[in-house]
Amino acid sequence: MSVDYLMWIPAAALLALLVLTLTAGALISLFRTGETAGGKRVFWFAVVLLLPVAGAIAWLAVLQHSTRAAAAGESGTEPLA
């Protein structure tokens, strides 16, 4: 029986920690922002939970776009997706 697979345990644990941190950060950001409410918040919550990495990156990209638009003085008529 080979023990070569044991060298991958730290890498897998680190990857799991990174995914959990990214997902938790996106969820905290989602609930702290005042621009999403009701159904849109539920939608993003589901996306981040079902697709932890892609959903979290998508939410943070949408949030970044929204923040830059607000800082540039654009009209905030478009709510977050």
UniProtKB/TrEMBL annotation:
| Topology with respect to the bilayer | Multi-pass membrane protein
Q: Where are the transmembrane segments?
A: 42-62
- Grouped into one coarse class, the protein's main location is membrane
Report the subcellular localization.
Cell membrane
Per UniProt, the keywords (alphabetical) are: Cell membrane, Membrane, Transmembrane, Transmembrane helix
Q: What's this protein's name? A: Cardiolipin synthase N-terminal domain-containing protein
What InterPro entries does this protein's entry cite? CLS_N (IPR027379)
Question: For the Cardiolipin synthase N-terminal domain, which residue ranges apply?
Answer: 22-61
